[in-house]
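Sample intake sheet
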Amino acid sequence: MSLLLNHPLLWSALILLADVVLWYLLAQHLRVVRVALRLALFMAYSSLLINSGISPLLAPAWGDDSVMQLGATALAIGWWLFAARVMTVLIGLMLMRRIGQSGRLLQDVFGALIFLACVVAAAGYVLELPVKGLLATSGAVAIIVGLALQSTLSDVFSGIVLNTTKPYQVDDWVSIDGVEGKVIDVDWRATHLQTSAGATAVVPNSVAAKAKIVNLSRPTHMHGVSISIQVPKHVRPRRVLDALNRALQGSDSLLLNPAPKVVLKESGETMAEYVASGFIAELSRKGEVRNQLFDLAHRHLEAAGIIRQAEGNAVPVSRARALLDEVKVFRSLSEEERDRLAESMTAEQFVAGQVVLDLNEVSGSLFVIGTGVVSAAVQDGEQRVEAGRMGPTEIMGEQGILADTPSEACFTALTSSIIYRIDKEIARASLEKCKQVTRAFNKLQAVRQSNSQGVLLARPAPARKNGFLSWLQRRT
């Protein structure tokens, strides 16, 4: 103890140095440990000063020893600054626990106010300066500085409002004043957004506080996605609405509640605009789902005869022949072979809920979807789970065509559908004529089997019930 009291300057400097070193050496995620160590060092520092006869509330009284007088003054001023820092980190810890990363701005503002108060206190208690005159002078200076930094102060106080009301937080996807991006930081002056193009947009807090803010990340598990389609005005709206509704049902990425919907937004002189919208669970898949919806909309509108591919002066073909041009596995066939194959195709109407090809059934035909949506379900224990949905130009029954093996999925019409049949022998004749078609069939079968396994593996394990009843059931 005598060693500590005889060398207060040395030991106080060591405590301050230890505080700085430990603060920067400890990892950022050990926030509680860092704050606890800083508080402990502050208590040790305060105890050392008091036991050495140095009070931060009184001016030092070592008039005969100028070195001790200067050192004691420095230690007392250091105590006020140390106290300000400890109070700042404690407030920051509480703010981080309550409002997360957005509390950093409030911590900075409170820290500045605390440091200002401690500097004034140190000037009044330790240096015995006329605080009233200092405050009056600083007030006049503050007015001048405030007028000069009016826009900057507006950003600061707007940032405080944004952090307390929390219309958005770090990692949220937002649209502020027409700028859309991911919030990567909110500091005392501006909100930083990372746009979808990879650029950084800096929106001043004063602008963000006045602008219309759209938070795309809330609610957490429901995000809207929509597409806009224009079709010729003369097409009856009911036909377009039915086709686009089938397109929405063809996507298994959309949530069932709220239900997807299609509305006629506007009818112009030549074109009518329709908007198909729904909700998804993951915001990161918004672009992927929009692309899928555009593709489904095009396929179902084409299947309904509402839009047609540019044919130039080509001779009009039947729906079956046009369908074969869009089936991927038949693209390597020649025009003549596709013509002969289209002549053998027969159309069949299926109502919603009707089974097209059942599980373990050996198909005697190859099915090509002309219109509508078909659901593919695989067996998972005692129940069946949906593995995917299919739409126009997609095929079923390839397993029976390749090797007379039973179907590994149950295909059921979700909507009223028109499905074309191709006899097994005719389909096999096409496979024998073109080896590329055979490879395409094998590749399609492998992809579907992989997707089915992925669906089953992705399903969460059923939760086991605990308690007296479950124990009794196991015993019986």
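Comment: The mean pLDDT is 81. The chain is about 50% helix and 20% strand.
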